Amino acid sequence: MRINCPHCGQRSNDEFSYLGDASIVRPDPAAPNANEAFYAFGYERANIAGPMQELWYHAAGCHAWLVVTRDTRNHEILDVKSAQEVALERQKAAGTAQ
User: Label partner for 17 (CA 20 to 30 A): which of 39, 52, 62, 67?
Assistant: First the structure.
């Protein structure tokens, strides 16, 4: 599998470290159901068969955190963005939704 790093170009996945699902949002510790929400945050994961956003760290390259959209059925890489870019997009979307 090859990942197209936005900073370094196409590289082997051996250069990267996989962290996991990039769509998970940390719960609010002040919420009334914080205990249940943190349990779900830590232990409950969907086993998606299809496109999934994942966090990857370019450990042997530019040291950037990336959000890789990968089809878990065939490992096809559909999209790669910097984690910072994705976070700013989510922040902007959350600001317009309120």
Answer: 39
Bin 79: left if φ > 0, else alpha if -120 < ψ < 50, else beta.
beta
Looking up residue 63, the CATH number of its domain turns out to be 3.30.2270.10
**Full-model pTM:** 0.83
| Total of domains in the chain | 1
pLDDT tens digits for range 16-70: 999 999 988 889 999 999 999 999 999 998 888 999 999 999 999 999 999 999 9
The helix (run of H) or strand (run of E) holding residue 36 is helix 34-43
Residue among 18, 11, 1 nearest 61 (CA): 11
Per the structure, the complete domain to which residue 82 belongs is given by 2-97
Q: Are 67 and 81 in contact (CB under 8 A)?
A: yes
59 is written with which tokens?
């450990």
